[in-house]
Design a protein that fits this description.
It is built from ten helices and four strands. The chain folds into two domains: 78 residues, 3-Layer(aba) Sandwich (Glutaredoxin); 137 residues, Glutathione S-transferase Yfyf (Class Pi), Chain A, domain 2 (Up-down Bundle). Helix content is 59%, strand content 8%. The chain starts with a strand and ends in a 7-residue tail after the last helix. Helix 1 links the parallel strand 1 and strand 2. Helix 4 packs parallel to helix 6 and helix 6 packs parallel to helix 10. The structure holds glutathione (GSH). Glutathione binds next to helix 1.
Length: 233
């Protein structure tokens, strides 16, 4: 039975799993879950994941949540090229794990929350943007980008965990697109090292990077047209 992937492409970890499946030609059944319609909170999806989050895979009855666990499982089970997640070189594997563990409380929390606070929560709650919170996450994004520049990409390292692309880069680039979705991409574009990394990663994920980001570009277009001007704090 084909592997099932439950996802919403507005979610950055879902895009990472989607791109990985497509690039590595792992056959899967599409099970879209529309977060904006609250489908993840419905009884049907709760039977799959009682925590009500995507992505989820169901590999012939083996149900797995959490993008990092999913990507590692897929890399091992489907014997994908080793650069994605090195299986025998423990130092190379540890470098990938290093970024993956870092990203949860750095790229992810800051970029996802900046996006949420600018583009989602005000509409969902029918309330004005909380600019103080936005500024707090902007500060976090700035620190994160400079840490990526100075630590993960130090000494001309082309990818986040070494000389070739890995699931660290995949998770990283998907997260960074949340900045683009809310017009905050200047944090990347103003850092030549991080910007060059992002531009190096995208073509390696073609054509699935662009395919999976269509919804992100739509959200950006709408946000840029409707976003209120920031008042002086
Ligand atoms: N750590 C999880 C995060 C999963 C997650 O937060 N998914 C979000 C979309 S990006 C979600 O399903 N949110 C729905 C909710 O929390 O109500 C992973 O990497 O898979």
């Amino acid at each position: 039975m084909a592997l099932k992937h439950y996802y919403d492409l507005m979610s950055q970890p879902c895009r990472a799993v989607y791109i990985f499946l497509k690039l590595n030609k792992i056959p899967f059944e599409h099970r879209p879950v529309a977060l904006r319609k609250g489908e993840h909170m419905g009884e049907e999806f709760k039977k799959i994941n009682p925590i009500s989050r995507v992505p989820v895979i169901d590999d012939d009855g083996f149900v797995l949540t959490e993008s990092v666990a999913i990507l590692k499982y897929l890399a091992a089970k489907y014997n994908v090229p080793d650069h994605w997640y090195p299986q025998t070189d423990f130092k190379a594997q540890a470098r990938v794990d290093e970024f993956i563990n870092y990203q949860h409380l750095n790229t992810r929390i800051n970029m996802a929350m900046l996006f949420q606070n600018l583009a989602i929560l005000p509409r969902l709650r029918n309330k004005p943007i909380d600019w103080k919170k936005v500024e707090g996450f902007r500060k976090g994004v700035g620190i994160t980008v400079s840490q990526i520049d100075q630590y993960f990409l130090k000494d001309n390292r082309p990818f986040l965990a070494g000389d070739d692309i890995s699931i660290a880069d995949l998770l990283g680039i998907c997260e960074i697109m949340q900045l683009y979705a809310c017009g905050e991409e200047r944090f990347i574009e103003s850092n030549p090292n991080v910007n060059a990394w992002a531009e190096r990663v995208k073509p390696k994920l073609a054509p699935y990077f662009e395919e999976s980001n269509v919804v992100v570009y739509k959200v950006r277009e709408h946000f840029m047209k409707t976003a209120p001007a920031q008042p002086k704090l």
